[in-house]
Design brief:
This protein is α+β, with helices and mostly antiparallel strands. It is built from 23 helices and 14 strands. The chain has three domains: 326 residues, no CATH class; 114 residues; 133 residues, Jelly Rolls, CATH 2.60.120. The protein has a six-stranded antiparallel sheet with strand order 6-5-8-13-10-11, with no helix packed on it. The protein has a four-stranded mixed sheet with strand order 1-2-4-3. Strands 7-14-9-12 form a four-stranded antiparallel sheet, with no helix packed on it.
């Protein structure tokens, strides 16, 4: 019978192993077939991990002690590879076609996880346990999406399942070994300690047992893994940044959406399939009965399920842990508490059909999410990847946001970038540079070339035009920036200092709130900007004072020597008025965001050989001010 009440015992080991192999091989082949229908990898971090694995394969496992190409990241000081064993696992797949190798490695990891879930399910719930992997996928799209990303949580999930099994089997030595492996594989090595401590509390409250090995065994293993890590002690520093400083600063950083929780209401709305399937399973196994006390595996999986579900409600990224443990726990409980019947074939068929439909829906929805993210963030074709690589010379210094850097590093590993994986890795070490990067890509920074050269120390900038439209507009309007590549939405621009001489920058700047040129010229209270308050841009062009302790309006004046009318290209950030020979020639209440060629006008013939130019500039709500004045010959 499909739902016989079978307890975990040694006589079922071979059958459980066969079920695990069938699920593992079947899932691997099916998923590999599905993934090879397209050329790309899901998500952004996947490109970083497979490229890093290729670099380690080429140079040796212990070659990198820092990531010199991540110039403004803590990784440039010490890498402390927080996913060491994961990258070690990927190395055999990173010798040729990296994209296919990544797809193959991911499919194998999925197969191992599916096989392990089937093995645990069959041993402790009989044939009903064979449906555990299907139940996990059917419950929510979030789990399917997370399982389609080549990231280290796959290895950590497998290790956590084994740790839970070791707790239930009372395997002290295995807890030490698995704890060490976890510390070598994943940055959150405190997670097994918390789960084991909660299991200790569960056994203490429900069984009156003091299982001290749940406290010391994983701690011994994790400490050993930390010390044996080839990146020690940098791995401890990276752990502190990722798991402490990040949590304290995440609300002020531009982090990924996976770190935020869904909440109970949103969880119910987005997981109705899981709720419906569990409800259906409960109805099909009705009536229930009281049975003997829960087994060690049921208690352990229940603790792990409850703890990871709490984490999942707080952060979507924990779906990869919560859903498998919940599926295991519910299946074991359903088999234990139901009343024995002569046959459950009809109920089994109905539930299996529901699981197949639910899993198919999750996979379809996950595919839609993955395709949307790739279309918005990734490269469109392999030709775009190749074009991006060829556009950057070896050693090129490139400014890019942390979330797009994995794509660019994969395509052009010969260049150097700023940061990768998470904004906190730049923020804790280079806070000023982090803020300037955010200002530049959001379009707030008026003088993009100077920001690149002076603060970000980059000659190139890589960006996606539809994601950063304001930045794209600034670059396209600035003659000091030259686009050298654009395809599939991605673009690369280079700072070109040869256009700087066309800008007029020798202005006299004075603080004054006078609204008109006549009143300004007649006033005697104008305060000339001091050298400390004057901005000398790294790439000449922008005219502005430092707006810090003074945020008022200011005037820039200049006497031009010319024998005829000149054509001016002008752009400004914030409200601005332009006067030529005391006459208002241009006014804007909002400015043009500092775009260089926002407007053009003729100065008109001078009176003699000299002409008086004046500009009144005021800060906008973001405290941006300044202007560009370019003479078009």
């Amino acid at each position: 019978m499909p739902f016989r009440n079978i307890r975990a015992d040694d006589t079922r080991v071979n059958e459980a192993l066969g079920a695990a192999l069938a699920w593992g091989i079947g899932a691997t082949l099916l998923l590999l077939w599905m993934r090879t229908s397209h050329w790309w990898l899901s998500g952004d971090d996947a490109y970083y991990h497979i490229r890093i694995a290729a670099e380690l394969r080429a140079h040796g496992v212990f070659y990198f002690d820092r990531l010199e190409w991540a110039r403004q990241s803590v990784f440039s000081q010490g890498w402390g590879d927080k996913e060491f064993l994961f990258h070690l696992f990927l190395m055999p797949f990173a010798g040729g076609d990296l994209l296919f190798g990544g797809q193959l490695a991911l499919s194998i990891l999925n197969g191992i996880a599916a096989g392990l879930l089937a093995w645990l399910g069959y041993r402790h719930a009989g044939r009903a346990g064979l449906l555990v992997p299907l139940l996990g996928v059917a419950m929510t799209t979030a789990f399917a999406v997370r399982m389609d990303q080549l990231r280290p949580h796959h290895l950590s999930l497998i290790l956590l399942l084994l740790i839970a099994n070791a707790i239930a089997n009372r395997g002290r030595i295995w807890l030490v070994i698995l704890g060490a492996l976890f510390a070598l594989s994943y940055t959150a090595w405190h997670l097994p300690l918390v789960l084991c401590a909660l299991s200790f509390a569960g056994f203490r409250m429900l069984r009156r047992e003091r299982r001290w090995e749940l406290l010391w065994a994983p701690a011994v293993g994790i400490c050993a893994g930390i010390v044996l890590h080839p990146g020690f002690p940098d791995n401890i520093r990276i752990w502190w940044i990722q798991n402490v400083q990040f949590l304290l600063a995440k609300d002020s950083l531009n982090v990924g959406t996976e770190i935020f929780g869904a909440g109970i209401t949103s969880f119910a709305l987005n997981h109705w399939r899981g709720v419906a399937i569990v409800t259906l399973g409960a109805l099909l196994t009705w009536p229930w009965k009281r049975d003997e006390r829960a087994s060690d595996h049921e208690l352990t999986f229940g603790v792990f399920a409850a703890a990871t579900m709490a984490l999942y409600l707080g952060a979507i990224r924990f779906a990869e842990y919560a859903i498998p443990f919940l599926a295991l726990y519910l299946t074991i409980v359903a088999v234990r508490v139901r009343v024995e019947r002569a046959s459950y074939r009809l109920q089994a068929a109905a539930l299996t059909l529901a699981l197949v439909v639910g899993a198919g829906t999750s996979v379809r929805n996950a595919g839609a999410v993955v395709r949307f993210n790739r279309a918005r963030y990734g490269f469109a074709t392999p030709a775009d990847v190749e074009g991006f690589r060829k556009a950057l010379p070896a050693g090129a210094t490139v400014a890019a946001t942390w979330d797009f850097t994995p794509f660019y590093y994969f395509a052009a590993p010969q260049a150097s970038y700023l940061n990768v994986l998470d904004p906190v890795y730049q923020w804790v070490r280079y806070p000023h540079e982090h803020d300037e990067l955010e200002r530049t890509f959001s379009g707030v920074e008026t003088d993009v070339p100077s920001a690149l050269k002076a603060t970000l120390h980059s000659e190139y900038i890589a960006y996606r035009r539809d994601v950063f439209p304001d930045l794209a507009t600034r670059i396209e309007s600035d003659p000091r920036m030259v686009r050298i590549f654009e395809s599939g939405g991605h673009a690369i621009a280079r700072v070109d200092t040869s256009a700087s001489p066309a800008f007029v920058t020798d202005w006299k700047i004075q603080w004054s709130e006078e609204p008109t040129y006549a009143s300004f010229a007649a006033s005697a209270g104008a305060d000339e900007v001091s050298p400390a308050e004057y901005v000398i841009p790294a790439v000449p062009g922008l005219v502005k004072p430092v707006v810090t302790h003074r945020d008022g309006c200011w005037w820039a004046t200049r006497t031009a020597h010319s024998s005829g009318s000149q054509r001016i290209s002008f752009g400004a950030a914030g409200p601005v008025s332009v006067f030529v020979e005391g006459q208002l020639r241009y006014h804007s209440a909002t400015g043009h965001g500092g775009l260089v060629d926002a407007v053009s006008f003729e100065t008109g013939p001078p009176r003699g050989t000299e002409q008086e130019w004046a500009v009144r500039s005021c800060p906008d709500p973001t405290f941006s001010s300044g202007f560009f004045w370019r003479v078009r010959r």
